[in-house]
């Protein structure tokens, strides 16, 4: 297992991940197949994920809920406390 060694590693990982996200074509079908309780957390200021599209996507998932946090795309860094709080509430 490789450990991230530098900021360059992070940039390369993010580039690969973003490319995979941009090229994924089966989201609607996959979303409609999910039936377990699901929580979607969106960043209100996210420039990568359009919040309205995210809301529509989350509505395709049965038994889902959504929460919007005042931050950008990196929710776990920008507003970790609120994110953890919402996940904790969801899991109770």
How would you describe what is shown here?
This protein is α+β, with helices and mostly antiparallel strands. It has helices at residues 7-23, 27-33, 51-60, 75-78, 80-91; strands at residues 38-43, 64-69. The chain is 54% helix and 13% strand. A two-stranded parallel ribbon has the order 1-2. α3 links the parallel β1 (38-43) and β2. The N and C termini lie far apart (33 Å). The relative contact order is 0.15. The mean pLDDT is 89.
In terms of per-residue confidence, which ranges show pLDDT below 50 for 5 or more consecutive residues? none
CA radius of gyration is 15 Å
Number of domains: 1
CATH topology: Rossmann fold
N- to C-terminal distance? 33 Å
Name the CATH superfamily classification: Alpha/Beta hydrolase fold, catalytic domain
Specify the structural class.
alpha+beta
Q: What proportion of the residues form beta strands (DSSP E)? A: 5-15%
Reading the helices and strands in chain order gives HHEHEHH
Number of strands: 2
User: In the CATH hierarchy, what is the architecture at level 2?
Assistant: 3-Layer(aba) Sandwich
The CATH class is Alpha Beta
Q: Major β-sheet, in short?
A: 2 strands, parallel
Helix content: 40-55%
How would you describe the shape? globular
Q: Which strand order does the major sheet show?
A: 1-2
Mean pLDDT: 89
């Amino acid at each position: 297992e490789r450990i991230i060694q530098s900021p360059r590693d992070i940039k390369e990982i993010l580039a690969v991940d973003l490319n995979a996200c941009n090229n994924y074509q089966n989201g609607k079908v996959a979303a409609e197949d999910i039936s377990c309780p699901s929580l979607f957390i969106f960043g209100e200021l996210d420039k990568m994920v359009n919040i309205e599209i995210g809301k529509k996507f989350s509505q395709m998932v049965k038994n889902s809920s959504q929460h919007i946090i005042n931050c950008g795309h990196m929710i776990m860094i920008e507003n970790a406390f609120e994110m953890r709080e919402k996940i904790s509430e969801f899991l109770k």
